[in-house]
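REQUEST ID: PR-0412
SUBMITTED BY: lab tech R.K.
PRIORITY: routine
TASK: structure prediction, single protein chain
INPUT:
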Amino acid sequence: MKYKFISWNIDSLNAAITGVSPRAGMSKNVLENLAQMKPDVLAIQETKLKATGPTKKHLHIIEEMFPGYKIAWRSSDEPARKGYAGVMFLYKESLPQPMITYPKIDAPTTMDDEGRIITLEFPEFFVTQVYTPNSGNGLTRLEDRGVWDDCYRAYLTKLDKVKPVVACGDYNVAFQEIDLKNPRTNRNNPGFTDQEREKFGLLLKAGFTDTFRYKHGDVPEKYTWWAQISKTSKINNSGWRIDYWLVSNRIQEGILNSDMIDSGLRQDHTPILLEIEL
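STATUS: complete
OUTPUT:
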């Protein structure tokens, strides 16, 4: 069976569906475009919702935009910072009803309470998404991030022993120099430290395929994120590829397409697509 999966770091679901700023309008346009693409599963990161999750207004708008979909969400909750991180799945009602889990992976500090992972278990495979912690300005969270990476890798490999895994999200790391426009000047910045790159490499070596590189090889200048702080980052394509669709190695031959979805002039993250036969 062929599946269409989409992942997107939305940088505030509330802003995208209720905001009135020009950027909010661009975000809503992207979300409407994704709805028209009718993915089997849509993974959304950095929802930034309250611990109680989407409001009735949010749910009403989502239901109108995505008729025929069910929703699963996870928000940051105490003792973690409120209105921070957060992930959400929308999946077609016509799919077999998945078992939904909200795993904690024995991560350090408050990371397990920050709303970073949801997993859908379908009869023949898992679909899981992650919003990986950023190492922070001055790399203040780099050590904890390294522990997170080890815990997350252990979690994925545990799933992979049960059935094939399809994993996505904002991994907050550009793995190779080809994955960002300016590797020399960004060396040892958050998302491009030796440690973060090494940990991501260990994840791939544990039995997972980077679907974009599998389909496209070393194609240059294809990115998923452009810094908002620079007004010209997207115009100049000074981006990073930090969002990924990964799959268990044993199902990589089913990959039909893995690519970025155009988000126009909107900076920050762009959605990513995976089409696969499972």
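NOTES: The two ends are 5 Å apart (CA to CA).
REVIEWED BY: pending
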